[in-house]
What does this fold into?
Amino acid sequence: MIYQLENAIVDDSNLLIKYKLNNIFEYAKDLDQEEINKINNYVNSKIPKQINNYKIIKSDNKIIGCLLIEKHLDGVILDEIFIEEEYRNNGIGTKIINNVLSNYCIVYLWVYKNNIKAIKLYEKLGFLIIENTETRYFMKYSKIENARNFCKEVKELSKKYNLPFFVVTDGASATSNNGCEAVKNARDNHKKWELEHNFDPEEDWSEK
It folds into this structure.
């Protein structure tokens, strides 16, 4: 399904508040009235301050959800993604998240522990749990860390099968060779590229 992202405007505030509260109350259960009131007050005061960072998700010119990305630590946080129920399970959310990951090297997010479907998706996309509370996980995607872990796994496979290899991916590379000309040629060509782009050709990311 095709979608578009548009900058949110002040007139979208009430809709964004509704989306935020829906996201929270769908998974935050057994709340007493005091907790509910605190959440409502927090969201109503917070959304107007974040409006410039919100994106409205549209399909066929109809608003179907929202997206919020903000700076956080050494990357960004995917603070909100909401899709109207009738438009879910069409791949829109996955496409949007993949687009975020292609534009940022480090992405954080919070997810409720009982949102099993979302957790499985985030793990599939390369997010790792780095912190948890009673009800939520804090997850991190790092393109470089994932690339280095990939190189380490390839290196272990090469040992298992006793095969030379050279691998390069977005953010890391690794090699082990016992005289294979094809591997040597591939690595030599990559060394030239690394030197041209001011990278250290002797750095083995599988050792990081």
Observations:
- The CA atoms of residues 19 and 202 lie 50 Å apart.
